[in-house]
Write a structure and sequence with these properties.
Elements: E1 2-3, H1 54-68, H2 71-81, H3 84-89, H4 92-106, E2 109-114, E3 122-129, E4 135-141, E5 152-158, H5 161-165, H6 176-192, E6 198-204, E7 207-214, E8 216-218, E9 223-224, E10 231-232, H7 237-250, H8 260-263, H9 270-275, H10 278-282, H11 295-299, H12 307-314, H13 331-345, H14 349-358, E11 382-383, E12 396-397, E13 413-414, H15 416-427, H16 434-441, E14 445-446, E15 458-459, E16 464-468, E17 471-480, E18 483-490, E19 495-501, H17 507-520
Antiparallel strand pairs: 1-5, 2-3, 3-4, 4-5, 6-7, 6-19, 8-9, 10-13, 11-12, 14-15, 15-16, 16-17, 17-18, 18-19
Helix pairs in contact: 1-4, 2-4, 7-13, 7-14, 12-13
Length: about 525
């Protein structure tokens, strides 16, 4: 959850909705599965100092005013330390209420970790509450690295590390039957602790190894998740957009080194279009500006149905940095690539991916639905309350913060079987030839590791890759409020892992990565 109210969406860091801080009881073991020992309470993590940089000191002042617990001082802090931009996106009253609520729910917070900076004007840190044992990752955004003002504060509930470690899969060799039972048991255990809700499908070669679903697709009606339930993909649509661009390259309609101006000569920011390449847009090294979750877009989401709707509204935003300077994840870059697909194919984006990707791959349950469309077997996403940085309050539906329709950058829907079919179609070269498949899916630029996620990730063209115990794994994840999903494909063809969920990150992705580590240890 990002607290600029619901006006900003971000990839969240995960949450628990268990009321008491005690460790969860292990779920009953499946017959024949290895027993999971009960975990002893872990010692508290040591308190850390924030950096002595201007941003570090600004973050320290934010922590101090929360810990002070005085509403009048918190309101004055917002008035004197938040920028006009911050107060435009959320009011003085809203920000003050957020600080007051954070203080009340936490009883004060201690900093227990500082994250690798994602940008010079951003600082992220993990906190633990003094009341109970709850966790959150805070991220503070400022106008510049030496500013004494705040543009935004993001507060994302995180899982208690002790809870997530309890019963974790040990990366040791087992029989195939024990592997399947252990993974199924782990999914059940996490669901019993309310740390996971979703589906898990693992294919070994061309055989299903694990197929299970946990939690509810709709809590109000107690409708259970199924393996074939449709879940929101988040950013995983980027894979489909990248494959579409690869197909157009194969047809000779463009090259990865083309400048954007060549394929979209009417792009509103001509100077940027003449300097940025398709390669840079695909690898998030373009520096493109524009926030597809801007308040104006969410407030009028019914006006944004096609990639060109976003391009017309956001393209004049100045770039964040010169193209090629560094990696910076940019959703809007893939919206522009969706417009490229439309221009060069002569088809609207959604028709193109349906006929050129989903039908050849036999992905009959994958599509981008409108937010008010009545779709059978579709999971509702559940997110933290906007004012809750720690996952204390009951979850809420994420319908109010969804875009009107999925896009080339994310937000479509799919199922675990469809994602496994997509991976199989890629590896068998039904969508791209062998050379283009390798070009699109292989890692090209290093990317920073999000908090609590594996290191060594590299970004290709709409795909991520990393090496796990000597085995290359490719795919992508997606996450936002009430959304988390992951596709992990062992590129040697040994395993494909699809984990989908309707809780905040990293519920599904953390389980997927744990499963990948476990499977990589098998013979």
């Amino acid at each position: 959850m990002a607290f600029a109210l619901s006006s900003l969406l971000c990839a969240c860091a995960g949450r628990s909705n268990v009321a008491e801080p005690a460790l969860p009881k292990a779920a009953p073991a499946a017959e024949g599965a290895p027993a999971v020992p009960a975990a002893a309470p872990a010692p508290l993590e040591p308190v850390m100092e924030l950096p002595r940089s201007p941003l570090g000191q600004l973050a320290r002042s934010l922590v101090d005013v929360i810990n002070g617990g005085k509403p009048a001082e918190q309101r004055e802090f917002v008035r004197t330390h938040f920028t006009e931009k911050a107060l435009k996106e959320s009011s003085l009253d809203d920000w003050s209420t957020f600080l007051e609520r954070t203080s009340q729910l936490s009883g004060g917070i201690d900093v227990i970790g500082v994250f690798q900076p994602r940008a010079p004007n951003r600082i992220g840190f993990e906190v633990r509450t003094r009341k109970g044992r709850r966790y959150s990752s805070f991220s503070l955004l400022a106008p510049s690295a030496d500013s004494d003002r705040i543009d935004a504060v993001f507060a994302n509930p995180r899982h208690d590390p002790a809870k997530t470690r309890a019963g974790a899969l040990a990366p040791v060799p087992m029989s195939e039957a024990d592997v399947a039972r252990a993974i199924t048991q782990r999914a059940r255990q996490l669901a019993a602790a309310d740390l996971f809700s979703g589906s898990v499908l693992i294919v070994k070669g061309d055989r299903v190894l694990v197929s299970t679903a946990e939690g509810h697709a709709n809590k109000a009606f107690a409708a259970p998740n199924r393996v074939d339930t449709k879940f929101n993909l988040g950013s995983m649509n980027k894979m489909f957009t990248a494959v579409s661009i690869g197909q157009l390259v194969e047809k000779g309609k463009l090259s990865f080194t083309d400048k954007l101006a060549k394929v979209l000569p009417d792009y509103p920011n001509r100077a940027f279009a003449e300097s940025v390449t398709i390669h840079q847009l695909l690898t998030h090294t373009s520096g493109i500006g524009g926030n597809i979750f801007a308040p104006e877009i969410l407030e009028h989401r019914e006006r944004f149905k096609r990639p060109t709707d976003y391009v017309a509204f956001l393209a004049k935003e100045p770039p964040q940095f010169p193209p090629g300077e560094r990696f910076s994840y940019a959703n809007f870059g893939f919206m522009v690539l969706g417009a490229v697909v439309e221009r060069l194919s002569g088809e609207d984006y959604f028709s193109y991916v349906r006929s050129h990707l989903f039908e050849p791959a036999k992905m009959g349950e994958t599509a981008s639905f409108e937010v008010d469309e009545d779709v059978p077997n579709l999971a509702v996403g559940y997110r933290p309350d906007d004012s809750d940085a720690f996952g204390v309050l009951p979850r809420r539906s994420n319908v109010s913060v969804l875009p009107f329709k999925g896009t080339p950058a994310g937000g479509g829907y799919s199922t675990a079987p469809d994602l496994c079919a997509f991976a199989a179609a890629l590896r068998s070269h039904k969508l791209l030839d062998a050379a283009t498949t390798e070009m699109v899916t292989s890692g090209k630029v290093d990317m920073p590791s999000p908090p609590g996620r594996p290191a060594g990730m590299r970004y290709g063209y709409g795909f991520m890759s990393r090496t796990v115990r000597g085995k290359e794994v490719r795919g992508h994840g997606g996450g936002a409020q009430g959304i988390n999903a992951a596709l992990r494909t062992f590129w040697d063809g040994s395993y494909t892992v699809a984990v989908m969920g309707n809780y905040d990150p990293p519920a599904a992705e953390a389980l997927a990565d744990e499963i990948v580590e476990f499977l990589a240890a098998q013979n």
